[in-house]
Amino acid sequence: MGKIVSISNQKGGVGKTTTAINLASNLVDLGKKVLLLDIDPQGNSGSGLGLEVQSLSKTTYEVMIGELSAREAIQKTFINNLDIIPSNINLSGLEVDFLGIEKKEFKLKDALASIKESYDYILIDCPPSLGVLTINALCASQSVMITLQTEYFALEGLSQLMRIISLVQSQWNPSLALEGVLLTMYDKRTNLANQVAEDVRNYFKEKVYETVIPRNIKLSEAPSFGKPINYYDPDGVGAKSYKSLAEEIVGRA
């Protein structure tokens, strides 16, 4: 049975999608079969793997409203053993579609039930919000990975995210665990980044990954070429960091 991991933080621009794409690709390099599921209406996980997401008709949205099964929405990527269920702007209307719907928190969990045994990992790229999409992701997951930018406002709002995780644990998914906290956009030359990293490690202890993701221009460029970093700049520091993260996650498991 595949492990389902949500990659979450309600703040935007903290490396969720970058992590989802590059972790997925590096897990494949370690011999794992991976499904990347995009529940962000921006659709960046799909475009970051070379898909024209706005023209697609088989997306997370159709799965969530019951028009398609998850298996019917799966698309192959150019990387063997890395599949994706992409999203696009249509998903932004889901909050309205779900008004008055019973058990709406479990729509994604129910949809994934038939395919989770087909993968070693299902990674869910969450939107920068704590609405019905993120709730669905957390209800469907065994664990949640938090990406945390090592800058001044990194910890702002983190308590709200932890409250949402606690709410999901108490009401819908008691087995939901904290997979880990990933420090992103790290610049070891600055006192601020080092202080944030120290604060996070003091609070989350061993749940913080040893691997940190550096601030790196190649990581920013890679999505515009539709490639994960290990295909775009395989010898660079960004590729080495995500390879290390994948190895750490598999090692912890």
Automatic annotation (TrEMBL):
Domain AAA: residue ranges: 3-177
Pfam families associated with the record: AAA_31
Superkingdom: Bacteria
UniProt protein name: ParA family protein
